[in-house]
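Quiz preparation item.
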């Protein structure tokens, strides 16, 4: 259809904190060596597979460094938008899951039930929804009919955007597998008022088949 558009949500490459399971949130952690290798492969893959015409990125280093490889492969200049950030984890930032459970046992139990934001200073899902969903919708509106917009963002906040854009209840999206570093979710619209449709989830370039990369 002539008014069809595609939205590609790309998770950033791996960081050292990803590798050991530390909660990052708004901490400005850059890509590690593996993450840089992932992003170098992901940039040309995104360019060749989706031919994007618009590129936005979270302002956190791990997203901007990933977006730089998409910029190089596409010739686009990424618009930096802090609304595409990950959840702010508050006092949980920098903790492994074991440390989180030990220091905040009640909040850890709530997290396991899908209740986010219980840790002091942390964002709730509603908080993240109120910033990332408008950003995703604006990116889609900025994409010309027939085109593709790409947002480089983060695993947990990406799921919030996907749930709302598809019109899914929150408990449904929790059934999706966690997003792999440098994987994408692809949503499409035919230009009508209907919710977007999910075309792909956790799609990756060929590096995903190599366990040594993770």
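Solution:
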């Amino acid at each position: 259809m002539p008014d069809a558009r595609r939205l590609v949500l790309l998770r950033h490459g791996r960081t050292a904190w990803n590798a050991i399971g530390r909660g990052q949130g708004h901490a400005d952690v850059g890509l590690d060596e593996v993450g840089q290798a992932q992003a170098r492969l992901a940039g040309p893959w995104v360019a060749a597979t989706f031919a994007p015409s618009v590129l936005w990125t979270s302002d956190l280093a791990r997203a901007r460094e990933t977006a730089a490889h998409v910029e190089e492969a596409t010739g686009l200049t990424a618009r930096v938008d802090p609304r595409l950030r990950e959840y702010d984890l508050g006092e949980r930032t920098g903790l492994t899951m074991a440390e989180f459970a030990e220091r905040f046992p009640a909040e850890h139990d709530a997290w396991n039930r899908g209740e986010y934001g219980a840790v002091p200073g942390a964002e709730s899902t509603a908080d993240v929804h109120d910033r990332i969903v408008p950003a995703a919708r604006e990116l889609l509106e900025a994409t010309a009919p027939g085109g593709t917009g790409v947002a480089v963002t983060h695993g947990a906040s990406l799921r919030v955007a996907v749930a709302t854009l598809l019109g899914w209840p929150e408990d449904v999206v929790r059934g999706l597998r966690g997003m792999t570093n440098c994987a994408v979710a692809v949503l499409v619209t035919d230009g009508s008022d209907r919710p977007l449709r999910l075309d792909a989830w956790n799609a990756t370039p060929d590096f995903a088949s190599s366990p040594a990369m993770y």
